[in-house]
Design brief:
Length: 438
């Protein structure tokens, strides 16, 4: 594939390469320790040094690199769609956490395999590239490892930054080093952004405008969260005909507001049940204490208890069950937003058919929420009183609530259409015959 020569390497990049070589033994000890503590076999631990634990498949290989769980899972739908369009293509996913590896293994599309990425040192990266010889490299969101990018590009492998998202802090840091920012971004043949703000930031950082394209947020088209039908039936049966609302992914300092809103709602809806799912289940004991302090009755999921007919709060302090709770109730408040936390993925509840209430501290999804609130698919609140009022409106006016759910479903459908455009753009960069020089 023909391309203009990239910008020259900078002194800062050279210093980074030297520093990475010096700290490599310490970085290796740390990451290896974490993987061993998780119980992984040694051949998998050594993947971080670039030693593959699987053979390279024959044919064209598309490599996806993601940071952790959310980014890794977000590409699975895209990989499945690409696999349908290019039936001869094989896929490799690299991600750094054992949790992401475990979840990917359970949901992996056909012709796909997972490895841990090499440390960003010359020796580890070169070893990785020599074995896998990717024909296309796709880096997800903001996972930019300089040597991995530069050394992959030198093999002739086209590179893509996909679902690009950069924090304001990250942008500010890069713009202070414009030559290095331009050098790193110039390794990419294509930069597909989540939103217009990221596109503008990439241009300001020195990315070539003709390589920047808008795209959908991959998390909007990920496969829906799993639902445990047995658990769903049991909880639904124990709650009965009582109305329910869900407060999901709440953080320290947010449950008090949610519980205050629930107490206000109970005055008009005495049978109402709140299903409260903290972002970090290990906080279950503290959250249970807050519920009791608020004078509300509580049943705790982690203790194997089902909600009774008088249970006012069902504390769902477990991992991996959020999809079941969204299937139980489509009226969802999504936490991480009443405080300056950045918000959480609104696409997961919407994929389950829900409409979403959020606080205003959702800066990680600011552009998405602006569109969702304009469409009526989401509602913003600031206080316990506003939260109670919004929940009450959707409980008492089913036609208004259904309209919000319909708007959310239409938004998700449009994102799926954009996914096909992204697939086409990526496959256009894939060489017709496998085997980038490695």
């Amino acid at each position: 594939m023909s391309r203009t020569a990239p910008a020259r390497a900078t002194l800062l990049y050279s210093l980074y390469c030297g520093a990475s070589a010096l700290i490599a033994p310490f970085a290796w000890r740390k990451v290896a320790g974490k993987l061993r503590d998780y119980g992984l076999p040694e051949d998998r631990v050594r993947e971080r040094l670039g030693h593959a634990s699987l053979p390279r498949p024959a044919g064209r290989l598309i490599w996806f690199h993601a940071a952790s769980v959310g980014e890794s899972l977000s590409v699975l739908t895209l990989i499945a769609r690409m696999g349908e369009q290019a039936p001869d293509a094989e896929f490799l996913i690299t991600s750094g956490t054992p949790t992401s590896a475990e979840l990917i293994a359970k949901r992996m599309p056909p012709r796909c395999r997972h490895q841990f990425p090499p440390l960003d040192t010359a020796a580890a990266v070169d070893r990785f590239l020599a074995h896998w010889r990717p024909d296309l490299g796709v880096f997800v969101e903001s996972e930019l490892w300089p040597q991995m990018l530069v050394r992959a590009r030198k093999t002739g492998c086209p590179l893509v930054l996909l679902n690009a998202r950069l924090s304001d802090k990250s942008v500010a840091g890069w713009t202070k080093r414009p030559d290095t920012a331009r050098f790193i971004l110039d390794q990419f043949d294509l930069l597909v952004t989540q939103n217009r703000k990221t596109a503008a930031n990439l241009k300001a950082m020195g990315a070539a405008p003709d390589r920047i394209r808008p795209g959908s947020n991959l998390k909007a088209v990920s496969a829906p969260l799993p639902v445990d039908q047995d658990t769903l039936a049991k909880v639904r049966g124990s709650i009965g005909e009582r109305p329910v609302w869900v407060a999901s992914s709440t953080h320290d300092g947010e449950e008090e507001t949610v519980l205050e809103a629930h107490k206000a709602l109970l005055k008009q809806h005495p049978g109402l049940c709140l299903l409260l799912a903290p972002r970090h289940p290990e906080r279950g004991g503290k959250v249970e204490a807050l519920v009791k302090q608020a004078g509300l009755s509580c049943a705790r999921r982690s203790k194997g208890v089902l909600p009774g007919t008088q249970t006012q709060v069902y504390l769902a302090d477990t991992l991996g069950e959020v999809g079941t709770w969204y299937a139980l109730c489509p009226l969802v408040f999504l936490g991480g937003s009443l405080r300056d936390i950045g918000g959480h993925n609104p696409f997961e509840p919407m994929q389950a058919g829900a409409a979403v209430i959020t606080g205003t501290g959702h800066y990680n999804f600011a552009e998405t929420y602006a569109e969702l609130t304009a469409l009526g698919a989401a509602a913003e609140v600031r206080t316990a009183a506003e939260l109670a009022d919004q929940v009450a409106q959707w409980l008492e006016k089913p036609e208004v609530f259904q309209s919000a759910r319909d708007a959310a479903a239409q938004f998700i459908s449009r994102q799926s259409d954009q996914l096909d455009t992204t697939v086409d753009a990526l496959l256009a960069l894939l060489p017709h015959e496998g085997g980038c020089d490695g």
